[in-house]
Amino acid sequence: MNSAVTPATNPVQQTTAAPASVRHVLVHLITPLLMCVGMGLAYMSAFMVPHPHHVKVAVIGDGPRVTAVARAIQSKAGDMVQVSTLPTADAAVAQLHSRDLVGAFVPDPAKPQLFIAEGDSDSSATVASKVFTTVAAVEDKPLTVTDVAPTTADDPANSGPFFLMIAVSIGSYSAVAAIGAGAAGWSLKRKTALALGTATVVSAIGAALAGPVFHLAHHSLAAVWGLAWLYAASILLIGVGLHPFLKRWTTLVMMVLFVMLNFTSSGGLFQPELQNGFFGGLHAFWNGAGLVEGVRSLLYFGGSGAARHAWTLAGWVGVGALAVGAAAVAERRNRMPEPETEQEAEEEMEELVAV
Fold first, then answer.
1. How many CA atoms lie within 13 A of 57 on its CB side?
2. What residue ranges in the chain does DSSP mark as E strands?
């Protein structure tokens, strides 16, 4: 009678395999642990203690009384605000529409009035309201607040552009890993074409969410889609360009660039004047801020300033084109690192799904 013979396990092989297995697991734990540290540092330093600094406000009118009110506010608030004077309410409204002011106050003893623009930022408008409510309370008069750029009933907190950016961001940077793993054997030219096609699909999904699904964009939907396409294309091109060099570390780098630094500096929750200098500085040129502020310009300010934000996004597309160009040069010179194995590609996708 035949019986199955189980091969004996070599103790030396067991001893060798165990440390190798542990090293393999530990290497894969590096990415989530670094993400934990990075996300904690980024989000907590950017959002935990919002503090106003140099918030631009104005006092409307002329004469000694207006000047005295402006000086008193500046003296009491210190560097939290930057107070100027404007001769007329029309001049103040124009600067609110151009987003050069956060609030403008009319120090009328009988009927004090405050002009704000909620479409710029709910948090900044709140700061302006607190400052001038205190001033009006000195004369024991109720403050009349006029919103010159109100948000819609479907987005009362003006957070819709921020959440639109999050949706497009996740679709874009996760697609980078999918392209890197699923199209590992493709030429760089084909990968780039796929990336641009993916940007079209991701931005169309974003436009659908902003328009017919959640009614964030009651108008200018085509322009919102255009900004979303520039944003998605920039992320995908940068990712496709970096992936041949970074391999499985691409996910971590993309998370740093387009989540940790991007979400925190976008102005979606707090404008730069309520954040520290680092994130406030990034807001001036980072692509997330370009999308969020561009969408706000379209929806709440008649398109004023939207072109500048579109150029910011176009600049990031240019950065992506340079990254792809660098990868193409390395590919032609045969200096590209060895392509990923199927197992490495699968592990990269698993890391992305876990994140």
1. 33
2. 55-60, 81-86, 103-106, 113-116, 144-147
State the maximum Cα–Cα separation within the chain, in Å, rounded to a whole number: 114
Q: Are residues 314 and 266 in the same domain?
A: yes
**8 Å CB contact between 164 and 228:** yes
Catalogue the long-range contacts made by 321-326 (C-beta closer than 8 Å, 24 or more residues apart): 321/237, 322/241, 323/237, 323/238, 323/240, 323/241, 323/242, 324/188, 324/192, 324/237, 324/240, 324/241, 325/241, 326/241
Could you tell me the residue range of the domain that residue 194 belongs to?
Answer: 155-354
Question: Given this model, what pLDDT does residue 215 score?
Answer: 92
Cα 177 to Cα 156: distance, rounded to the nearest angstrom:
35
Report which DSSP code applies to 339: P
Instruction: State in Å, rounded, how far the first CA of the chain is from the last one.
Output: 54
Q: Is 221 exposed, middle or buried (0-12, 13-18, 19+ CB in 10 A)?
A: middle
Q: What is the pLDDT of residues 252-265, one digit of tens each?
A: 899 999 999 999 99
d(CA 15, CA 332): 43
Contacts of 47 (CB under 8 A, 6+ apart): 264, 269, 270
What are the CA-CA distances from residue 56 to residues 50, 242, 281, 337 (Å)?
Answer: 16, 40, 16, 51
Place of tokens 């197992």: 343
β 81-86/103-106 pair status: unpaired
In a domain, 287, yes or no: yes
Pairing of strands 144-147, 113-116: parallel
Q: Is the dihedral of CA 97, 98, 102, 106 positive or negative?
A: negative
For residue 260, the model assigns a pLDDT of: 92
DSSP 60-95: E--SHHHHHHHHHHHHHHGGGEEEEEES-HHHHHHH
Residues forming a β-bridge with 55: 81
Residues 226 and 113 in one domain: no
Q: Are residues 325 and 201 in the same domain?
A: yes
Query: Same domain for 232 and 107?
Result: no
Tell me, yes or no, whether 248 and 297 share the same domain.
yes
Q: What is the mean pLDDT of the chain?
A: 85
